[in-house]
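To whoever picks this up:

The parser on our side crashed when reading a file containing two proteins. I've narrowed it down to the boundary between the first structure block and the second sequence. Both blocks are reproduced below exactly, byte for byte. First block:
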Amino acid sequence: MAASPRTPRQAPEVTVRTTTRSLPAVFAAAALAVGLAACGSGGDGSGATSGGAPTTAGTPTVTKDDALAAMVPAAVSSDGRLVYGTDASYPPNEFTDTDGTTIIGMDVDLGTAVAQKLGLTPEFQNSQFSGIIPGIEGARYELGISSFTVNDERVKTVDMVSYFSAGTSLAVASGNPEGITPDNLCGRAVGVQAGTVQVDDVSARSQACTAAGQPAIQATELQQQTDVTLALTSKRIVAMLADSPVISYAVTTTNGVVEAVGEPWDTAPYGIVLAKNQGQFAQAVQGALHALMADGTYKAILQKWNVTNGAIPTSEVRS
């Protein structure tokens, strides 16, 4: 999802703290009937143009919008910080730099720009994916930005502000020696990150396999996406499912060891997560995103991380 490649105006203070990242599983039974369609993790369907290392192009200077800043609850703005929970194991959206500590990525740059537009200093705290939404509900984090797909299950407990679009993609060993496709995964060892919608995708497909008298998918759930990718490159699994920009990034950063198969499916928007009943906070975040779209910052950040295919024309609030 450079030591800290953010907007060139400043290098905001970034704090990294280990905690925990959550995604309530959303199981769409109807998906079984349509080509075993799965419950994809992200949005645009293509998600990334190349998904490789970030470009060196800079992003516009981000300045505070006083009207939007005034919409942020005092409980959030009083300390001058905007605290995000993120799982830094999902490149290129959010991951740690080569120093093993600094959190970088597309989501980090967008989250930084949103904070700056609201006149606040961003702070990104590293967490397991399954702990972020509970952390927001418990006021540990003020926002969550970690490739969260907007879905009905999540908005029952939190509000979400859309900012990107991605789909689920399939990756296999280069050359696809076993001829794997999304529709012939029965009996095969397939890796997914725990807590993501790809878990539901594999579960739906596996149930369809057994219902048809075929062996279940041998699903491997690992806590970090980077571990899933490693399992594929080390041949402990034969395929993995992940968000489309993540698969694209893996393809271009594994020296030809991994390749994507077919087109992404189940496209849906990503959303910034925040607790419910916070006045105009969601509208402030939405307004910041619209301002960044209007002044070119949003486009520049997506270009920097080679994920322009995931751009959306407007942000929406789901509550």
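<<boundary where parser fails>>
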Amino acid sequence: MKDISETRARLKGIFNITVTPFSKDGAIDRAGLSRSIERVIGLGFDGVLIGGTYGEFPAMSTEERADVFRHVMDVIGDRVPVMLCSAHSDVRVVRDLTKLAGDLGGLPMVTPPYVSEVTDGQIVSFFRDMAPLSKTGILVYNAPGIGITLSPTLLEQLADIDNVAGIKQGDLNPTAIDQIANRLGGRLRLFCASDLAFLGPVMAGFDGISSTNSCALPELILATYRALEKGDAAAARDLHQLWYPFRALARKHGQPQTTKAAMNLRGFDGGSVRQPLRDLDEAVHNEISAVLDSLAGDTRTKVTLAA
């Protein structure tokens, strides 16, 4: 993408939150990352998100993250839009990665500065500082998991900042979703940040979703989103219910550990996690395998298992 106009035109649909595959010794598996990207592009995903929370960016150095940005953009080129997470607790790192992401033709995804007792005014000032650094605009990520939840009122202020292309909404409170969809819809792009609850926001008017589970179940989750996109809410509901057991395991055993384990069981490039996370043990792998076997036995899912 070359500028914010192109970003806003292309920023919609289903984006795969691509996990970062690490070897057992912690090295980044660049070839495996490339294969994961090619898989979801080949299936018809509308875009990818690289280096996000479930991409384990907090466990990566700034240099590693920049290297991953460059590698991914070399692989993808301009085939699909790419969100590149530039979040960090150090504003200097955010500044450098945000500029790099835009220069490479990706869309920097920026969280609020996660420091204690930051005020709304300071958050607005932070985004005003970051937004002009990227020629493609920025995506504001409302990520309650970092300890800061942006209210709909504050998001309206951020939407007025020049060069903000969209919002990725992680706060799934129905009232917040309703306010954001109806106050900000059409002004900028709205993305739902959740696998477990994207049906409601999309029906409310959101422009797209980002999905981690789609690394493990790309065919099923793509089919679910496409049904919703076509207005077939009943089919989308039924498909979404099919992978509830997998979502339950992810909540029980953690992300991206569960997704990576399922990818590996399917012959995909999940790889290992980095500390402080831990790879799942054999007993949990057996639980995940049972869920995958069940999904593979249902013709609606199009899920196949490794030979």
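After patching the parser it read the second block fine. The chain has one domain: 4-251. Residues 75 and 282 are 34 Å apart (CA to CA).
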